[in-house]
Amino acid sequence: xxxxxxxxxxxxxxxxxxxxxxxxxxxxxxxxxxxxxxxxxxxxxxxxxxxxxxxxxxxxxxxxxxxxxxxxxxxxxxxxxxxxxxxxxxxxxxxxxxxxxxxxxxxxxxxxxxxxxxxxxxxxxxxxxxxxxxxxxxxxxxxxxxxxxxxxxxxxxxxxxxxxxxxxxxxxxxxxxxxxxxxxxxxxxxxxxxxxxxxxxxxxxxxxxxxxxxxxxxxxxxxxxxxxxxxxxxxxxxxxxxxxxxxxxxxxxxxxxxxxxxxxxxxxxxxxxxxxxxxxxxxxxxxxxxxxxxxxxxxxxxxxxxxxxxxxxxxxxxxxxxxxxxxxxxxxxxxxxxxxxxxxxxxxxxxxxxxxxxxxxxxxxxxxxxxxxxxxxxxxxxxxxxxxxxxxxxxxxxxxxxxxx
Amino acid sequence: xxxxxxxxxxxxxxxxxxxxxxxxxxxxxxxxxxxxxxxxxxxxxxxxxxxxxxxxxxxxxxxxxxxxxxxxxxxxxxxxxxxxxxxxxxxxxxxxxxxxxxxxxxxxxxxxxxxxxxxxxxxxxxxxxxxxxxxxxxxxxxxxxxxxxxxxxxxxxxxxxxxxxxxxxxxxxxxxxxxxxxxxxxxxxxxxxxxxxxxxxxxxxxxxxxxxxxxxxxxxxxxxxxxxxxxxxxxxxxxxxxxxxxxxxxxxxxxxxxxxxxxxxxxxxxxxxxxxxxxxxxxx
Lengths: 405, 284
Known about the structure:
The complex is a heterodimer. Chain A is α/β, with parallel strands linked by helices. Chain A has two domains: 19-53; 76-397, Alpha-Beta Barrel (TIM Barrel), CATH 3.20.20. Chain A is 36% helix and 13% strand. Chain A is built from twelve helices and eight strands. Chain A has helices at residues 19-31, 37-53, 88-101, 112-115, 125-136, 171-185, 211-228, 254-263, 298-307, 334-350, 371-374, 387-397; strands spanning 76-79, 105-111, 140-146, 189-194, 234-239, 272-278, 315-321, 354-360. Chain A has an eight-stranded parallel beta barrel with strand order 1-2-3-4-5-6-7-8, surrounded by six helices. Chain A is globular. Chain B has two domains: 54-146 and 245-281, Periplasmic binding protein-like II (D-Maltodextrin-Binding Protein, domain 2); 150-235, D-Maltodextrin-Binding Protein, domain 2 (3-Layer(aba) Sandwich). In chain B, the strands form three sheets. In chain B, strands 1, 5, 6, 7, 8 and 14 form a six-stranded mixed beta sheet that branches. In chain B, strands 11-10-12-9-13 form a five-stranded mixed beta sheet, sandwiched between helices. The A-B interface holds A 324, 326-329, 333-339, 368-372, 386-388, 391, 403-405 and B 70, 72-74, 76, 110-111, 114-115, 128, 132, 134-135, 148, 174-177, 180-181, 197-201, 203, 219, 221.
C-alpha cells in the first residue's frame, strides 16, 4: 500500500536524489536491521569496483637536496637512456648512480616527436622530469635532438618514411623546436647536439647522406638556438665512424662528410664537433687508419678540422666504448673492456682538443630485446652495477682501480 | 546446555544415514562430479574440445620445423657460404631428424629472435638463450643443452671439483668476469683464498698449467677450447656459476614442446649432444 497523506513516495528500487527521504528510508531500514536494496547493491558495486581497481600507490619520488658531482676528471661523461624510462624513481636512481660514478656530464636524447606531437604544441613533461633530476644531481646535460614527428613527414599514402626522415621543407620546423628547447632549459643545458649520425643513411631517413643539406639544418638550428640563448653550445656532426665511400647506399665516410660540411660553409654554425668513436676489438692505442674503425679514428676527424682552420673548436666524443658481449665477434672480454676504457679515458684527457668522452651507454630501460646495447651498459636494467662501472668510478674519483690484472 | 550436532562427515554412520535419506541429491551430486571430470577431460589441451597445438599439426603435415638462429656466435652458430654450422645448427638438425621432419634454419639478428617466435615466423629459437623470467608468460624454455657458466679447471694430478676445496689455495680468474665476481664472494666464505686476476681466461688457465694457481675459474667455452691443447688439465664435473643455454618455444605449442623435450632428452642420453659439443669445442 502506498503511504497516504502529504508524504512523498520513494520507490524502494530507486536511488533518490532526495537525501532526506533516502536517509529516512535508510534509518527505517536500519531499524529493521536491513539496508535498502538499492543502497546495498550500490555498496556491493562500490566494493567490487574498489577491489578491482585498487593499486599500490606509485613510488613517491622526492627530489632531495641538490647534489654535486665529486670527480677529479671532468672528461668522464656517459650517454644515458632516460627517454624511454617510464618510472620516475628509475630516472632518479640512474642519475644518482651517474653522479656517484663521478661523471659530471650526460648525453641524453630528447626526440622531437615526443615533445611536439602536434605542430606548435609542446609537451615538456618528460623532458622536464629528466632535466629536473639531472640538475638536482648536479649533472650537466648535453641534449641530443632528433627524429621527426608524424606531422612533419609526408603522409604515408604519399611516401613511406622512417622516423629519421626530415623533409628539407621542414628544416625550419626542426630549428624552431631547437630554439624552443634551448629557451626552456637555458643555462641548465650543457649544449645541444643537432641530429644524430647524419652520415648514415639509416639516420637520414633512409636517403643517401647529404652533407650540404645537413649543413643547412645546422645553420638554421644554430641560429634558432643562439637566438634563444647566445651562450648555448651547439654541437654539430655527431658523426658515426664508417668506412663507407661517397655514393654508398648506407653511409658516408665521416671524414669526407665533414670535409663537405666545411665546403658547404658549416664552420660558423657549430661551436663544437660531436663525434662517435668505437674500439670494437682493437685497443685504444691502435693507430688511426681511414680503412679501419678504431678509437683513434677520431684523430682523423680532428685533422680535417685543422685542415679547414677550425682547430680552435673542441671535440666532444658523445659515444664511445667497448662491448663485452660474449656472443659478438666484435666484442672484447670484460677485463679488456675495463683496461681499454680506462686507457681511452687517459688518452682523451691528454688530448687538449677533447672536452668530454661519453661512454655508450649507462643503462637501458629493458635488456630483453637489445642484447648488443645491454653489453655496452655500465649498469644493468635492474640496476646491478657491473665491474666496468666500479672501474670508471675509481678512475673518475681518484680511487685505487679495483680491477687490475 | 545445548550440544552442537557433529557434522555428517565426522561420523561415517551419520553420513551413510544422510546419503540414504537424500538419494536424489546424492545422485545429482555424482552426476555433476562426473560431468565436471568429463568436461575437464574433453577441454584439456589437445582433447577434442580443448586448445589445439596448431604448430605441431603443421609440423606433422608439412614435415618441416623452422628454427630461428643468430649465426654470429662461433662455435655455436656460424654463417658459412654453404649453410649455417655449429653446435646449435647441429642440434637443430638433430632435433628435426628425431621428430622426423626437415629443419629449416632462419637467420636473423639476435634482437629479432623473440619477435619471430612470438609472431610464428619460427617454431623455436636456438641461440644461446638464457631463461628469462619476464617472458615465461608465453615462452617455454627447454631443459639446458649447454652450460656456458664458470667452471673450475685444475691439473689432472690434483683435481678440484668444488670451490670449497680451494681453502688455503690460489684461484686464477679472468678479470671482471662472472668467475671473478664469484671468487670475490668465496674469499669471504673461505678461511683463506688468494684470487689472481688475468686479463684473459687463457692466461688464467696457463697459470694453472704452470703451477702458479691450484685452479682457474673460467667460462666453459674457453675452458673446453683450451683443454683441447692441454691434456694435463681437466674440468670440474659441474659449473660453479651456472649459465644454461636453453631452447625457446611458444608455451601454447604444448605438443611441440613435449616432443622437443623428449628428443632433447634422447639426444643427451645417447651421447649425441656430447659428440656435437666435442666436435665443435675441442675439434675431436
